[in-house]
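EI: anyone free to look at a 279-residue chain?
SC: sure, send it
EI:
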Amino acid sequence: MTIQEISDRTEWEEFVRAQEPLTFLHSWEWGEVQRASDEGVERLGIYEDNRLIAVALVILVKAKRGYHYLIPHGPLTTPGVVMGDVLVALRDYFDDRARSDKAVALKIAPLLEANEENQQLFRQAKFMPSPLHIHAELTWVLDINRSADELLSGMRKTTRHAIKKAQSVGVTTEIITDPSAVERFWPLYEQTKQRHGFVPWSKHTIAEQLRIFGEHNRIFTVIARYQGEDVAAAICPVYGTTTFYYHGASKKLPSSVPAAQLLQWAAIQEAKERGCTQY
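SC: here you go
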């Protein structure tokens, strides 16, 4: 196996979008978002007999506790390629680079089931479990390649009731594709951070996500309003035939105003309008 950087957007996107499952965290745009946040970015192709068999979007994260490499939701491989061989090739590649980049670790967060077989692949390649996860460990995937009535009938009765309840009490939603949506998202995000105590993204980074993905119409923001105020919001990247609920924010509302459920329903409907089959 040989490894070399891919600089052609078309070559990268054609390979990534042909793999399953799709992930926007390996899109060309995600690399540009990282660059805009002053992280190092490499798009590596792994070749065998001059044939591209795997790719890895590698981010040099400049953390205070130590620089490290991160491969989010990757590497991605073509069917039949032994993941263990790709892991060893990447490990050896970065062993030679780490000192000059001042990197202390290579973190890989792949879209693989956490079963014994996959864990054994990493052990054999001399990787160990990270004490902290980088992305969501469990992800719910909804098949939206069905009619609106079928989707509603497949929901829990309480969810259907909440959607209708929100509409009846006057909650409305709107879809925004302009990056300026960050100005309406941010106050809700700050309130959510204060309630739940998580480490937030910076406003600059979220604004760059909206700008960069927005250049190719691959992101939208949903805003829910009640009594003339923004009360909930979601930022949803779109990649291939999948829409991702990525950032969420809201005001604390009484249970009699279920804006969050209507917000999700609006995002699902927008995803369907865009021809997506998964949410």
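EI: The radius of gyration is 20 Å.
SC: 👍
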